[in-house]
Amino acid sequence: MDIKEFVLKKAHEAREGARNLARTSSSRKNSVLAKMAEALSIRSAELIAENKKDIEFAEKKGLSKAMIDRLTLTEKRVEEMASGLLEIAQLPDPVGEITNMRQRPNGMAVGRMRVPIGVIGIIYEARPNVTADATGLCLKAGNAVVLRGGSEALHSNRAIVTILREVAQAEGIHAGAVTFIDIPEREAVMEMLKLEGIIDLIIPRGGEGLIRAVTENSRIPVLKHYKGVCHVFVDRDAELAMAEAICLNAKVQRPGTCNAMETMLVDKLIAPAFLPVVLKRFSDAGVDLRGCPATRAMFAGIKEVTDADFRSEYLDLILNVKIVADMDEAMEHIAIYGSAHSDAIVTTNYDRAMRFLREVDSSAVLVNASTRLNDGYQFGLGAEIGISTDKIHARGPMGLEELTCTKFVVMGNGQIRD
Amino acid sequence: MDIKEFVLKKAHEAREGARNLARTSSSRKNSVLAKMAEALSIRSAELIAENKKDIEFAEKKGLSKAMIDRLTLTEKRVEEMASGLLEIAQLPDPVGEITNMRQRPNGMAVGRMRVPIGVIGIIYEARPNVTADATGLCLKAGNAVVLRGGSEALHSNRAIVTILREVAQAEGIHAGAVTFIDIPEREAVMEMLKLEGIIDLIIPRGGEGLIRAVTENSRIPVLKHYKGVCHVFVDRDAELAMAEAICLNAKVQRPGTCNAMETMLVDKLIAPAFLPVVLKRFSDAGVDLRGCPATRAMFAGIKEVTDADFRSEYLDLILNVKIVADMDEAMEHIAIYGSAHSDAIVTTNYDRAMRFLREVDSSAVLVNASTRLNDGYQFGLGAEIGISTDKIHARGPMGLEELTCTKFVVMGNGQIRD
User: Fold this and answer.
1) Residues of A in contact with B415 (CB under 8 A)
2) I need a labelling partner for B206 at 20 to 30 A (CA). Which of A58, A188, A374, B365 fits?
3) Residue B408: which of A137, A375, A348 has the closest Cα?
4) Does one domain contain both B219 and B234?
5) In this structure, what CATH number is given to the domain that contains residue B78?
6) How far apart are CA B51 and CA B28, in angstroms?
7) Pairs of CB atoms within 8 A across A/B
8) What angle do CA B374, B379, B364 make, to 5 degrees?
């Protein structure tokens, strides 16, 4: 069978699975998730053995240490996958909720019912845990999943999917609900991306290269996360100790994440009191600082920041510092250089807090809180399938609700159109 | 200037317009809409004169009568455009609403604020009224619009846009908020569709050919309406008079619309009592009937329905009739042949009504009401920009809310990530 036919057949199986899952009750879905978690735990030795094959191959191919680390399954990581599924089982089921039910003048009641999207394609790189996490979230929201992991993790993913499918089938769920494209050819991804009308949504998870390639080639809607170029603006009326704590946290608590701060913008009126102290702390914490001329005049021995720096997502202990005339200049900077991900203001001024909240156009806008808090768990959504930097369908952390859509439901008693 | 540069420059102007509009108050937007309406009314002679040029050219080119009718502006049609804008001014502004504001365990409050999408591209065919309608809806929701109408309507559209832009500028709105691609080359559309990150959303309005071409070539998310292959299922427990009224209305009240019925599915237990009467009425109303073998055995002289008929959107007085064993067969038929647009059941049975509502996966699912009621006005959304047959972002009639997105807003008092 050629690759095109193979992928099409798989997608059709997923479609069947989706129709079956859409009719499955919450309690059945939750018990399937619990049994999947149990099976992963019990069979962890099997998973680790299959994972070894991937690791050996990755070492032969000379993949980076970081990549091999992401690829590696340990007893603890398998336990984390299992407990992730249990957590998903405990979240409320979004499917079936009816909102905005209103009586119309002609007597019919019109509302919106939350329903699964259908078939969701997940295209990801080397992390095998995505296989279990994405399956759990899609299944709970009533969607079939078509999984396409990186070829480096083929043995690991195949082993995880085998277990998940066995449990699904034993529990009376159509096996197509968990569909895995288990061939390594890249062409398989290209074929997936053409299946408009069979696959309803694509969520790519990985580096910028993967995401751009998927977006450019897909005829199916894509929900994606490009990059996080995040800002904290320290207003002239900021409380100094709070501003210091928030800026430190936003940069150093976990610099490798998308919601860590890239650029600290400081109002010129507060800069003399604030900057020397906080820059000393950054410097002590090993942060590589890059400043505008005014910053460098105030704090010696740091590099000059460039235009390219202002556009970079560092994912590392590097920070741009810029002194601005006022909040308007700060917001202008964010509009030009930011990636509309996570941007914060520190201030005690009510008017400026409200203006910043309203006018900064980012997936999360925060007053007096660290950008690092832009996260599904922190925001109370439960587990997240990713953070969307798009504006269509979902923006910011995406939980179960973002894996559903709505349809209009009408309860009439004979209404017709005049 | 080449076409690529021209379109890029226009899109950048729209982007500026969008930033300006996002900060404009509701009362300002409403007064701009009211003044636009007034200006269209006052200057209708000018619009009709420009429209004459398009009509003359269309007649020379030998365009169809139906197309020339869609293209024609009359005093009455200009008045309708103006009153459309006034209606939009009276709708509540979705922008700025904050929902789901909740206190998190660490004390910060997290909610979602409704905000404009940004820049919306509208690609349409010969109807000049779309120019005013789409501008009104986009503007009210705080979005800049990039208009690209059919080349047949170039003079008409240019005249309408000139008036709308003059009013916008006089009222202090950035002219980029109403951007018009006023060159006839098709290449301009292709260039528009590449401007990911500058244009946020594309809404094509027109025939299936236009919509497919836009979807296949766009790197920007597209909200679209393919086709409406709509069903009414008459259950064994239907009230006969109600079923008759709903089926007649769904087919003949305005057959040229997307939510008119294509196929009537009838439970075999009720068929002998229901079919002969209703088919006689359809026949008297001039409907071309196509039946399954069982239907033809019951009602003489009608054509046999084909598989292709079941997949057709008629937009005309043609109806397929099929007798089914039960609701499951009806739902199976809808899943296979339908276009997930508008599907209705007529029944007095509570369990089947609830199952049909839940299990039929269409943009609107109706119990005891005509499919013709799937419409923004009927559903209480006010004016609509179209009906989406997609599942991502918007499904069914799209009003002002569907032209917005949300962002997360966080009000903290010093929260950081542990």
Assistant:
1) 368-370, 373
2) B365
3) A375
4) no
5) 3.40.605.10
6) 30
7) 211
8) 40
